[in-house]
Write a structure and sequence with these properties.
With 212 residues, the chain is α+β, with helices and mostly antiparallel strands. Helix content is 33%, strand content 17%. The chain has a five-stranded mixed beta sheet. It has a two-stranded antiparallel ribbon with strand order 3-4. Strands 7-8 form a two-stranded antiparallel ribbon.
């Protein structure tokens, strides 16, 4: 039986419906294992641009720009796999999609983005949002997030970055992260990942965070 794949946008829409945040959800704090390794920064995590706008109605343009930038970063930095089975081993059934054409030379499948994380400082500016300035900044202080629906995965029900850093539960809305998480330039994926390889990367990153 052929297993269907999901598009990036359809997966986000489904997540937004399943995990509709309650009013107090924004007060939850996650990703404690990232603290203690330098200056911390508050970050907000959303499933979609609409999810972001619902919580920040005055920042529609910022939410949309951040979402679209995260989509681009997801395509560039997400782990790529040569087969659907390898991708689903790490990320779970129905949670993988085709790699966009500019990056298909690396692999055929990649995980669907499970949302994005944005520095809370962006929402402290009451001035009109300047999308040209946002796009021109090398470090936009955001990143795409991924999750696994494979119950055997070390990041099942968690949100992780493309480098394997664990950023908290899938339902968390806020996180305290080391500024290095945003400042570190995530390289473009250049080779296909092995089956279960990204899960091992997450486990290794988690162990390093606990130790440092």
């Amino acid at each position: 039986m052929k297993r269907s794949k999901v598009s990036l946008s359809k997966r986000f829409d489904k997540l937004s419906t399943i995990y509709k945040p309650k009013p107090l959800m924004g007060l939850m704090v996650g990703a404690a294992m990232l603290t203690g390794c330098g200056d911390d920064e508050s970050a907000l995590m959303y499933y979609t641009a609409e999810d972001c706008t619902a919580e920040n109605p005055a920042h529609f343009a910022l939410c949309r720009a951040a979402y679209e930038e995260a989509l681009e970063e997801s395509a560039r930095t997400a782990p790529k796999f040569s087969s659907l089975a390898d991708c689903e081993e790490d990320f779970g059934m129905m949670n993988c999609t085709d790699v966009p054409s500019p990056y298909r030379q690396v692999g055929t499948y990649m995980p669907a983005m499970a949302g994005f994380m944005l520095a809370a400082a962006w929402f402290q500016d009451d001035d009109d949002f300047d999308i040209d300035l946002f796009k021109s900044r090398k470090k936009k202080r955001l990143m795409p997030l991924f999750t696994s629906y494979n119950t055997r995965s070390p990041f099942y029900g968690r949100r992780v970055g493309a480098t394997g850093v664990d950023l908290g539960r899938l339902t968390d809305r806020r996180a305290k992260v080391s500024r290095s998480v945003f400042d570190r330039e995530v390289p473009t994926t250049t080779r296909a990942a092995s089956r279960g390889g990204f899960g091992r990367t997450v486990a290794s990153s988690r162990s390093a965070s606990r130790g440092g």
